[in-house]
Amino acid sequence: MTAGPSPPTDPGSLDPAAAVLPAGSILFRVHPDSLRANAFNPHFGLGARFHFILRDDGTKVPALYAAETPEAAIAETVFHDVPLRPRTRRQLSAWKLDRRWLSRLRSLRDLQLVELHHPGLGRLGLKPDEITATDPSRYPRTRQWAQALHDRGDHEGLVWMSRLYNVDRAYTFFGDRVAETAFVQDGSSLALWRDRGLDWIHQLADACGIDVIHA
After folding, report:
1. What does the pLDDT look like over 51-95, one tens digit per residue?
2. Are the beta carbons of 162 and 148 closer than 8 angstroms?
3. Domain boundaries, the chain
């Protein structure tokens, strides 16, 4: 896996493909107790593929990640850091599910996004393994691209194919351009660490070759 090219020093030279997430779209989001279903992460944690990026004053841009299916939302969060080991089952510690919820969101307005799957990737001269399908060691580079695409114009987020569930789209939204009121929770949240939610996690993990370890 290559590090991939750096974005241009002048974000204005980028010509990304635009995508629209229409009002009324249903998304799924995994979040901890500390965040409401539609609340952006303001600064917690070390960041990931496309966050945190910075405002002009050096403060962090809040981020909200979501996906178009529950399975992709789990793959992009709970299963995200499970190491890939060819020809052997992998393991997930059950404590990583503690106090985490799966919530369904509905968008209340059209959202303007940068398309980071093909053909949009080709328009930027990128391949998936250079930005959207990298392992975490490449995040400093992928965040550079998120920063450049954010600074390029008035796009409100990014859309790409989930790295670990690549039949579905994943999303991140820029909290300096999208308010949490752009989304409303649609239905009740599912607790992932107990009862029906935990049973479903076990089924999905098994399908992905992952054992959930309760220690």
Report:
1. 999 999 999 999 999 999 999 999 999 998 887 776 678 899 999
2. no
3. 13-83+101-188
